[in-house]
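Example record used in the benchmark description.
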Amino acid sequence: MSDMSNLLANKATIITGANQGLGFEISKKYLESGADLLICARSAAMLETSRAALAALAAPGQKVVAKVADVSDQGDVQALVDEAMAQFGRVDILVNNAGVYGPKGASEDVDWAEWVRAIEINLFGSILMCRAVLPHFKAAGRGKIIQLSGGGATNPLPMISAYAVSKAAIIRFIETLAEEVRGLGIDVNAIAPGALNTRMLAEILEAGPEKVGRAFYERSLKQRDSGGAPLDKGADLAVFLGSSLSDGITGKLISAVWDPWSDLPGHLEELNATDIYTLRRIVPKDRGMDWGD
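Model output (structure tokens):
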């Protein structure tokens, strides 16, 4: 989208994991589009640095508030939403961006506590955030939930199993939640932002081929050298999904890089009538076979 000014004017937004990488880029794009922001992360120092940088970009009257929070902690999540209500009087948009790769290595060898911790952050944390904003969305008769996903949602990721499992699971939750709130003015969607050159890529390269697998490591090297997917692609899609342009689009996993998302409002009837942009089981006939279902 070339001009995003005022697309999100006066929209009160919570963005998790916003102190760096894609979360910070989304925060910048939301500011450019007129939104008020409550950003969160676990690191107080990094969060304050990001808040100050964003505040310097804010227009007169725009609010940029930061609060340290662990999205896997129910108390922190509720305090975060309470802060948004105190600061803005409402919540219009939730962007669930916080996430970690978790342990790297064979599923039977990695530290079990680290594996569970990745599920707590990526899956439970996103669900807790949704649960906390939904009463406010329902009371207002409107709301937008935008969930960041990743390659693990649509493809196996050997040696990074906690990440893959959490990303696949959160997409099914998003699809399910979209059906629960259908007709209530609440849209729930997920973004596949593409292969990004962020701190998570650095983690993969630091772990090495022994822990993440030779094939994935070599793909990551190529990604690093090519520059990866532009951060602004995912951020622009997040703005689109938070805006009224996307009203009625719900329960979808949309690729920021490959899908013609800016054209989707013209295909609303087809989107709502089909399983396009969803995760589904493949049966033999889907692959031209004459056996099975």
